[in-house]
Amino acid sequence: MVDRRTFLGIAGSSAAGLILGCRGSAVPVAQAPTSATGPARLDRIGVQAFSFPKLLEQDVDAALAMIAGLGYQEVELFGPYPYSLQAVQDQWRAMAPMLGFSGSGYFGLEPAQFRARLAAHGLTSPSMHVDLDTLRERTAQVAEAAHTLGHRYAGIAAIPEERRRTLDDYRRMADELNAIGARAKTLGFTVLYHNHGYGFTPKDGQIPTRVLFDHLDPSVVALEMDVFWTVAGSADPVELLDAYPRLYRLMHVKDMSRQARFTQGGTIQDFIALMPAMTPAGTGVLDLPRILGHAKRNGVEHFYVEQDLAADPPSQLGTGIRNLRAMTLETRSQ
């Protein structure tokens, strides 16, 4: 029986973060919006591996071939990895029966082997998620893997629940990410922080995530916006992108079948209640042309479609990328 603490324990090591508890060579990045000679579109689209982990566990080559065949060019990985702390790996094993799969990271391959598989299908991996403790305590091992895979970014999918209870917790987390980021910079990668839905409602007169963001050093830490969880947390993605153009560099692109909100966003109950509202990009109610337009203008480099544990990856991920490829982005300043 997995208790609640264990259920939340893998939050920082999986791409979905709270879903079920939770340099190498240069990597091409998204280009600036097209000039007046043509419409602005996303010209390079990636996918988060947590969207199709069961397929990766069954057959890495077949899964990557499917992704490449749909037109994706980048893949973001999630942990734990062989070098992750033992406690994190133990938590993952405890979660495997509930998740329905046991693989993660490189799905039984060595880092160099996984990069070779990516390359064989014309794919790159600019970033990965790793849990906070491993990122802090084994920064050098994370850097070695990042160099091997070609990651430019490595960081956490969520702040552990017990470390985000107060505004001072958020300030301390910013200090910790800055410190890890400073070390990571000397080792050739940038630390990333991916948001979920917590921290967007006022606490003691301030917005906790704003406290965190205001204290981050953009020279060593980058933000990865999850569009769905940002909106679910009652925040405006466009307003945040415009407020922190020096921080946002990556994005998880999702859509909502209906307007869905929660008040806290940090509990299992909050999370599970909103999961049914996830829908492939371009099929829901979010103003993705406006959000993505502001993202490109403010410096976001990598756009990952994420359909958490997609029931039908070829269909759902195929719909998402087709819609994004055809989408004309709003590039006006307002």
Report on this structure.
The structure is a single chain. α9 (about 210-215) links the parallel β5 and β6. The protein contains 14 helices and ten strands. The strands form two sheets. An eight-stranded parallel beta sheet has the order 2-1-10-7-6-5-4-3. The chain has about 325 residues and is of the alpha/beta class. The protein is globular. The protein has one domain: TIM Barrel. The chain has helices at about 5-10, 55-60, 60-70, 85-100, 110-120, 130-135, 140-150, 165-185, 210-215, 225-230, 235-245, 270-275, 290-295, 315-325; strands at about 45-50, 75, 125-130, 155, 190-195, 220-225, 250-255, 255, 280, 300-305. The N and C termini lie far apart (about 50 Å). α7 (about 140-150) crosses α8, α8 packs parallel to α9 and α11 (about 235-245) packs parallel to α13 (about 290-295).
Task: Name the features.
334 residues; alpha/beta; TIM Barrel; 10 strands; disordered N terminus
Euclidean distance between termini CA atoms: 51 Å
The secondary-structure element order is HEHHEHHEHHEHEHEHHEEHEHEH
What's the overall geometry?
A: globular
Number of helices: 14
Question: What helical percentage do the residues reach?
Answer: 40-55%
Radius of gyration: 18 Å
CATH class: Alpha Beta
Average of per-residue pLDDT values: 89
Low-confidence stretches: 1-37
CATH H level: which superfamily?
Answer: Divalent-metal-dependent TIM barrel enzymes
The overall number of domains is 1
